[in-house]
Amino acid sequence: MLVLGIETTCDETAAAVVRRSGEGPGEVLSNVVRAQFEAHAAFGGVVPEIAARAHIDALDGVVAKALADAGVTLDALDGVAAAAGPGLVGGVIVGLTSGKALALVADKPFSAVNHLEAHALTARLTDGVAFPYLLLLASGGHTQLLAVLGVGRYLRLGTTLDDALGEAFDKVAKMLGLGYPGGPQVELRAASGDPARFAFPRPMHGRAEPNFSLSGLKTAVRLEAERTAPLNETDVDDLCAGFQAAVVDVVANRARAGARAFAERFGAPSALVVAGGVAANGPIRQALQGLAGDLGVPMVAPPLALCGDNGAMIAWAGAERLALGLVDDLDFAPRPRWPL
Ligand code: KG4
Ligand code: ZN
């Protein structure tokens, strides 16, 4: 089954062609991502109106390149998938409408994909992970521990009470003048910093419910930054290192609580999976690797190109749904909010 996937929910215009041939991993035939970082950099975050216009400008070219890179025509496809939310509604409309139009003209089944479900199922595309598995979904807008029981079957074990993990990285980067998106910058600066110089809190540590809270940690970084100002390069490195060390401890502790909650209901998971943009973070991956070792299950993290937003994950989620006979109507409405 050959599916084209389109992603436009935030600040990446992306399209990809993926092949699914039964259970087991899929095959990414092309994966084109055009980031809009420069368009938003001056504002320190994504500006919805600018994002929607940039998607309009880029999408036709991105889709054409995805088909060309894969060496296929629209006719060869078995379906077209587009992210229908959650996300910035202007961008969602652009990708969703294009996906529907392509499905209509090529007379192919259409799949309206939940962007979070696409992140959640990426481990099946890359590694063929079997259900059920424990998932940490950590992006700029979402932080959830989920039991992934099947396609369309998700149980939320825990979530963040305030900021998302990626959002905390982005806000810390912004207050330290490091630009957007903040995660990669903070990770880079942390690598040459001293994580022990500043003592930051580990919110929710030891609690049984696998929830997160990050705003107190973010505020602690801001207060230390204000106390230490004017900041030199070493100060920034050390603040990043201290912040990231706290986040790594929190993630490991909260994921451990998630594993306990999972085991109580469903027994042993087939894997511990991490997905979403924050899954690109090396020290977070290492901490989860350690936890997976303790649990005696494999840790699965997508390759970096599939951690951030991309079209391959949308195409794959569409393929998984179409394989189950789940086809969506062409009047499927965009969903700015769409919890799993
Ligand atoms: O999944 P994603 O690409 O978009 C959303 O759906 O939000 O995630 C983007 C988020 C941003 O907050 C970004 O700062 C964060 O992922 N991120 C990272 C790293 N790379 C991206 N956070 C920590 N460390 C990284 N290396
Ligand atoms: Zn995402």
SSE topology:
Blueprint (H helix, E strand, L loop, with lengths): L1 E6 L4 E8 L7 E9 L1 H5 L6 H23 L8 E7 L3 H18 L3 E5 H13 L5 E6 L4 E8 L2 E7 L5 H11 L6 H10 L23 H14 L4 H34 L5 E4 L6 H14 L3 E2 L10 H13 L17
Parallel strand pairs: 1-4, 4-5, 6-9, 9-10
Antiparallel strand pairs: 1-2, 2-3, 6-7, 7-8
Bound molecules: 5'-O-[(R)-(carboxyoxy)(hydroxy)phosphoryl]adenosine and zinc ion (ZN).
General description of the model:
It is an enzyme of class 2 (transferase). The chain is an alpha/beta fold. It folds into 2 domains: 2-122 and 309-323, ATPase, nucleotide binding domain (Nucleotidyltransferase, domain 5), CATH 3.30.420.40; 132-269, Nucleotidyltransferase, domain 5, CATH 3.30.420.40. It is built from 10 helices and 10 strands. The chain has helices at 37-41, 48-70, 89-106, 115-127, 165-175, 182-191, 215-228, 233-266, 282-295, 311-323, and strands at 2-7, 12-19, 27-35, 79-85, 110-114, 133-138, 143-150, 153-159, 272-275, 299-300. The strands form 2 sheets. The protein has a 5-stranded mixed β-sheet with strand order 3-2-1-4-5, with helices on both faces. Strands 8-7-6-9-10 form a 5-stranded mixed β-sheet, with helices on both faces. Helix 4 crosses helix 10. The site of 5'-O-[(R)-(carboxyoxy)(hydroxy)phosphoryl]adenosine (KG4) has 20 residues, from helix 5 and helix 6. The site of zinc ion has 5 residues, from helix 4.
